[in-house]
Specification:
The chain has 404 residues and is mostly beta strands. The chain is built from four helices and 30 strands. The chain has a single domain (35-402), classed as Neuraminidase (6 Propeller), CATH 2.120.10.30.
Length: 404
């Protein structure tokens, strides 16, 4: 009788522990409309670089970071350099260059800055993290290892800094001797040597090179839908068609989930064309000619997310071109640090949300990159997204502040 009682008490204890764990995970369900409504905001120009300026040329902008001193670091994937810009827009110097020597990279796709100021550039293939000091001196390079064994046939696509280590995202490829290739998409927390500590998310898809097709759904992953905040937490929107952000410790423990009521907009003809262009551009990197592609009918729920220095979450939601507020060209959903949907900020102006990129810096400034999409497609060897013109204007970076 005592034994059965102990078993019962044990089961109750396990149930209570599970319940406590579930209660520790807060879920914030937000309505479709923010508490503060839609706010149109004007951009006040601070400075601009590139464009017709012959002294400074940008190829493709892969990633932008702002240091604690206000300096802006711009990764140029085409030139394989990090351009360093002062807070007031003055070009300071360039770090790294194209090559295979110490501190050098080829066609990098991302970079991140460690707590000590080390600049870590992701060499796409073969996947390695190349680290340099803030003055450009080489430190070394590492790969990605699982259980002490470095992975082969892998590419790096995303990198973020964490306390004492990093988060790496990429694709590992395996081949079975035939036309099939298994592609494992992953996002993993690693130590400072690139050894995997835990995986935050992953998925696997298979490619048949004898009948090479790519679909937007199979290629979708969290590359642009992940960020780290000044609170040390990881913000991750895992599902393409679900407006939901998981906020977790780097070890994968979910602290809260932020949801917003959302209906995905149907894409316009222009948006469908751009999605097709991107798939065909990516296909250039594969060892077989593309025989067909398939895109989704709707925009992704979350296109990008950024955490500013006050721990607010800025989300670029999927919207149809036809649904933007009159006189605006792009918009952001803004959430409080606790996950409350505070407001929607619509930026006024005449830029093109499909062709131009916009980065929100930690201090709240905005960097607009004109012609970013066409520069990317041109680098990949694809035609430009509109009018299929072989000539494109040089990239220009314009820094703005929101008008109060």
């Amino acid at each position: 009788m005592l034994q059965h009682r102990n078993v019962a008490l044990f089961c109750i204890s396990v149930l209570l522990m599970a319940t406590g764990s579930a209660l520790a995970q807060t879920v914030i369900d937000n309505p479709a409309q923010p508490t503060g409504g839609v706010q149109k905001a004007s951009l006040v120009e601070q400075w601009r670089l590139g464009g017709d300026d012959e002294d400074l040329f940008f190829g493709t902008i892969a990633r932008i970071h702002q240091g604690p001193d206000g300096k802006i670091y711009i990764l140029d994937g085409q030139l394989s350099q990090v351009q360093v810009i002062s807070p007031d827009g003055e070009y300071l110097n360039s770090l790294s260059k194209e090559g295979d020597g110490p501190g050098e990279v080829r066609r990098p796709g991302d970079f991140f800055v460690s707590e000590d100021g080390t600049i870590n550039i992701l060499n796409g293939f073969p996947g390695r993290v190349v680290s340099i000091t803030p003055d450009g001196s080489p430190i070394g390079s590492i790969g990605y290892s699982i259980d002490g064994k470095q992975t082969q046939f892998g590419v790096f696509i995303r990198g973020l800094a964490t306390k004492g280590g990093m988060i790496l995202g990429g694709i590992n490829m395996t081949f079975g001797g035939g036309p099939l290739s298994e592609q494992n998409y992953y996002l993993a927390r690693c130590d400072a040597e690139g050894n995997q500590l835990n995986r935050l998310t992953e998925k696997t898809t298979t490619i048949d090179y004898s009948d090479f097709h790519l679909t937007e759904k199979s290629m979708d992953f969290i590359w642009a839908r992940v960020a780290t905040g000044p609170d040390g937490l990881v913000y991750l929107a895992e599902e393409r068609d679900n407006y939901s952000i998981s906020v977790m410790d780097p070890d994968g423990t979910v602290k809260r989930v932020i949801n917003r009521a959302y209906k995905a907009p149907v894409r316009t003809a222009r948006q469908k064309k751009i999605a097709t262009d991107i798939i065909e551009a990516v296909a250039v990197n594969y060892p077989a000619p593309l025989r067909g592609s398939e895109i989704e009918e709707t925009e992704p729920a979350i296109g990008n997310l950024i955490i500013t220095s006050d721990n607010r979450i800025w989300v670029s939601p999927g919207v149809s071109d036809d649904d933007l507020p009159q006189g605006t060209w792009t918009l952001f959903d803004v959430f409080s640090p606790e996950g409350v949907y505070e407001k929607q900020v619509a930026l006024t102006g005449s830029y093109n949300r499909n062709r131009d990129a916009v980065f929100v810096l930690p201090d709240g400034q905005f960097l607009v990159i004109t012609g970013a999409l066409d520069a990317f497609l041109n680098q990949m060897g694809a035609v430009t997204s509109e009018d299929e013109q072989p000539e494109i204007d040089p990239l220009e970076i314009i820094c703005f502040k929101l008008e109060n």
